[in-house]
Amino acid sequence: MANFNQVKKCFFFLLVALVSNLAGADAFELPPLEQRLDFNAWKIPELSVPPCQLDFNQRIALAKLEALEQANEKIATAIASGTASETWLVAEGYLQVGPKEYVQTEKRKFFRQLLFPLAHTGLLFPEIVKAHANPNNRQKIPVDISTYQAAIIFLPGVGFTVSQSDTVIEIAQTFTKGHNPGLHLRGVPLRAVGLPMDVTLNGMASAAPYLFGSRRGSMAMLRHAHLILHVLYPHLKIIVAGRSQGGLISFAYGQTYNDFGLVAAIAANPTYPAGEILRKSNEIHIQPELLEKLGMDKNYHPAGFRSYLEFTERDYARVLTDPNKIPLLGLVAEKDEGYPQPDYVAAYQQWGSNRPDSRIVVIDAEHHFWSRPSGAGEAAFDFALAAKANFLHPLIYPQ
Q: Where are the alpha helices (DSSP H) in 114-191?
């Protein structure tokens, strides 16, 4: 009878998994401080189940990841054969184009979502920018993608249950507007549209299976966005850029691909993926004082942070040794409290010194230098912006 009851219980959980289709995890209270470095303490519904359903969930997750990888191969083949188009992407279920859905930040910057159902994520696409002119007449100007020469996919870090893409909207919109003097080199403005994207199991990606938080999953998600962008706007050169864990993912992508318009990868304060620096960084990131200071007190995404703890060193340590396929730029802040200093900056400087096609720039700033409102100050923001523009100009406008 006991065995029969166990079979019934497993059957029930399998049925629940099928009906729920692995919905994303919600926010919950942080585990006790002494347990936070144990990724198993970050319980999520997808994994906190009996063994029979766990095996079933993992099979579903793997099947979804394999389906995404196969879709990427299919898109790449269609691009090569000249048969890929927006209509084809929609018909295949790779791109969701429906009523315009705006994402409005506190600074009233408007985006619509380009959703990629198979990748369980999407991009924020700017439709309107405010004119950088008379503050009494701030006209809303439609974004004309034909006037741009490049697109920058901006990846946020791991962390919140809310969309982390909001944290890179400031820098993305600065590139899209193109008015900042730091974006001009010898009189030539850098015309690159900024596209925030959720990839680390939060925001638009919060319903992705846990496996998508691995390097394999993140590469497939970013590849999907890259390929779809190339189909929609084949004239644009593509740059991937990210901060924190998003920066590490950008570096890994730049060591994996160099096709379909991809020309560079940029990382702002990227996670250092191995050894004592990573261990100390993990310890810093669970301290209540720092979490409260960064506004992350009780908002960690359980699946996102668990995947960060489980997969970072296992999957990304090879970033320190793998060769580049495209030029890489790293921006590291010597006052960033999220990493052990000065070891963190020194380690990335050493890493960059062995890569002649790449560059590491040290910035006198704290953690949030990618965003003006965070308190990093105009000088740090503009310095970082100019470093990115100087790096990108010869790649986008080769002599």
A: 169-177
The DSSP bridge partners found for residue 332 are 362
Dump pLDDT digits (tens) for 164-212: 566 788 888 889 888 888 888 888 889 999 999 988 787 778 788 999 9
Residue 80, number of CB atoms within 10 A of its CB: 11
Of the candidates 242, 396, 260, the one whose C-alpha atom is nearest the C-alpha of residue 331 is: 242
Q: Is 78's pLDDT higher than 80? A: yes
What's the rounded Cα separation, in Å, for the pair 388 and 399?
A: 18
For 321, the 3-state DSSP assignment is: coil
Q: Look up tokens 């406008």; give the residue.
A: 397
| Residue 218, in any domain of the structure | yes
Classify residue 43 as exposed, middle or buried by CB count within 10 Å of its CB (0-12, 13-18, 19+).
Answer: middle
pLDDT value at position 202?
75
In a domain, 74, yes or no: no
Residue keyed to tokens 């054969």: 81
- CATH label of the domain that carries residue 149: 3.40.50.1820
**CB-CB neighbours of 47 under 10 Å:** 18
Domain assignment present for 73: no
C-alpha–C-alpha distance, residues 100 and 78, integer Å = 27
State the maximum Cα–Cα separation within the chain, in Å, rounded to a whole number.
81
Residue indicated by tokens 């890493």: 351
Structure tokens given for 249: 């993912």
Give the N- to C-terminal CA distance of the chain in Å, as an integer.
Answer: 78
Which of 96-105, 344-353, 375-384 shows the highest mean pLDDT?
Answer: 344-353
pLDDT of residue 102: 55
